[in-house]
Amino acid sequence: MDSIKARETVKVSSKGQVVIPSAFRKKMDISSGDQLVVTLTDDGQLVLEKLPSSLDWKELIAGIPVEQVDIDDKGHYDPKKSPNFNKWMHEE
C-alpha cells in the first residue's frame, strides 16, 4: 500500500453510504455521477479508484493518429507511408 497522504474519519449511514470528504473529491476530480471502483485488499484495506469518464477517453484517443497503416505478416510497416503512426509508436 502507498504511504498515507491524507486521512479523515467518515461515518457509514444506515444504508451503507459514506461521504467522500470534499478535499478528496476536489483532489481526485470526482463529481456527481462519476463511477468508482471499490477494491478490498488482502490486508483488509478498502481502495477507491475513479474510472475514466467518456470525456477522459475522448481526450486520450484524440492523440492517436488516424491514417492507413499496412502491416505485413511479420508485423512490419513502412514508416514513410505512415509517418504519423511511426512517430506515435516511438513517443515516450
Automatic annotation (TrEMBL):
Classification via Pfam families: MazE_antitoxin
Source domain of life: Bacteria
SMART domains per record: SpoVT_AbrB
Keywords noted in UniProt: DNA-binding
MF terms in GO: DNA binding
Biased segments, Basic and acidic residues type: 72-81
SUPFAM superfamilies: AbrB/MazE/MraZ-like
Region Disordered: start-end pairs: 72-92
Domain SpoVT-AbrB: from-to ranges: 7-53
Protein known as: AbrB/MazE/SpoVT family DNA-binding domain-containing protein
Species this chain originates from: Levilactobacillus tujiorum
